[in-house]
């Protein structure tokens, strides 16, 4: 099956007046990635990395300077109505008509897809239940909290029962319970066969949800892959548990701690393992366990951002 989304060397430059002359700024610099059917793909990057610009280009809100992207086999410059019918979009800062109620707004969105009357009322009720907003159906949008507006935005992105969801910062403004509910919803939508492409800078959420992630820094893609692929070589330290060692046993450059008669040793990297094991055996000790401790996505992400900034990107 073809990819749901294919981005090939997508570039976006903006031209601004600066000190009475035109200056060109490159916001996206030849980014490329693919999203497979049925997966949750996390588009990760710090603030200002180019995540929202990428999504705006994909949704036809801005025009790329060069490069291409295809959604469900259609070039984004075609502005295909077929693609729009099969796509759900949640912008970073959705706009709402303040004097409509939550229910009225969702029925208005349904009408844009030709869903009216009883079918629209039924669909609205289903979506309000899905995002936990049923009690607020009659509440004017101007009286909704940021979290309630975010849930309403998620509901409107689902009104046409889309195959492909593009969500820009979907957990923005939500409390911890709301974040968990949205994450649970994303997993449920995946079970229903939906493909989800979402941007975020909240790394624990991405680590819990994503089949694959792409890391963008300074408008450039730095890494794309599954979490095991990205983290496979990222051993931060090695934890060794040993026993029967003499009092005062120590290893240069290693931290040690006594726990229940055993010695917990922290080695700062794979290269120190063999010398440490040799010294433990020479001292008459025995090794109980050797466990590599890998960094999580948050630490890996921070390292990628730091490396990119040090390289001047």
Description:
By secondary structure, this protein is an alpha/beta fold. The protein folds into 2 domains: 5-225, Rossmann fold, CATH 3.40.50; 235-294, Dna Ligase, domain 1 (2-Layer Sandwich), CATH 3.30.1490. It is 33% helix and 31% strand. It has 10 helices and 14 strands. It has helices at residues 51-58, 81-85, 102-112, 117-130, 146-157, 176-191, 203-209, 227-231, 273-282, 297-310, and strands at 5-18, 21-35, 40-44, 66-71, 74-75, 87-90, 164-168, 195-200, 212-217, 220-225, 235-243, 255-259, 262-267, 286-294. The strands form 3 sheets. The chain has a 6-stranded mixed β-sheet, with helices on both faces. A hairpin with a 2-residue loop joins β4 (66-71) and β5. α3 (102-112) packs across α4 (117-130). It is elongated and about 80 Å long.
Number of helical stretches of at least 4 residues: 10
Distance between the termini: 35 Å
Number-wise, the strands total 14
Query: What is the count of structural domains?
Result: 2
Trace the largest sheet across and list its strands: 6-7-8-3-9-10
The average pLDDT is 89
CATH class of the largest domain: Alpha Beta
The 3D shape can be described as elongated
- The amount of helix comes to 25-40%
- The CATH H-level homologous superfamily of the largest domain: P-loop containing nucleotide triphosphate hydrolases
Structural class: alpha/beta
**Proportion of β residues?**
25-35%
Radius of gyration: 25 Å
């Amino acid at each position: 099956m073809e990819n749901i989304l294919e981005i090939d060397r997508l570039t976006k430059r903006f031209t601004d007046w600066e000190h009475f002359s035109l200056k060109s700024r490159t916001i996206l610099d030849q980014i490329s990635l693919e999203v497979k059917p049925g997966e949750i793909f996390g588009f990760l990057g710090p603030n200002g990395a180019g995540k929202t610009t990428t999504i705006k280009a994909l949704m036809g809100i801005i025009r790329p300077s060069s490069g291409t992207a295809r959604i469900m086999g259609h070039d984004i410059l075609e502005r295909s109505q077929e693609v729009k019918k099969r796509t759900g979009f949640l912008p970073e800062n959705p706009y709402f008509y303040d004097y409509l109620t939550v229910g009225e707004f969702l029925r208005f969105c349904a009408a844009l897809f030709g869903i009216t009357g009883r079918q629209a009322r039924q669909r609205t009720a289903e979506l309000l239940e899905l995002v936990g907003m049923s009690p607020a159906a009659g509440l004017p949008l101007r009286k909704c909290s940021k979290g309630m507006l975010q849930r309403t935005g998620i509901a409107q992105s689902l009104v046409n029962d889309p195959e492909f969801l593009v969500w820009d910062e979907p957990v923005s403004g939500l409390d911890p319970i709301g974040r968990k509910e949205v994450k649970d919803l994303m997993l449920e939508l995946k079970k229903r066969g939906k493909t989800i492409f979402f941007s975020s800078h909240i790394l624990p959420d991405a680590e819990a949800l994503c089949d694959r992630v792409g890391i963008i820094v300074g408008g450039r893609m730095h890494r794309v892959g599954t979490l095991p692929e990205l983290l496979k070589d990222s051993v931060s330290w090695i934890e060794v548990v040993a026993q029967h060692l003499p009092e005062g046993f120590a290893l240069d450059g290693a931290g040690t701690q006594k726990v229940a008669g055993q010695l917990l040793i922290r080695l700062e990297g794979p290269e120190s393992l063999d010398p440490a094991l040799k010294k433990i055996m020479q001292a008459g000790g025995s090794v109980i366990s050797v466990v590599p401790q890998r960094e999580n996505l948050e630490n890996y992400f921070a390292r990628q951002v730091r490396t990119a900034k040090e390289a001047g990107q």
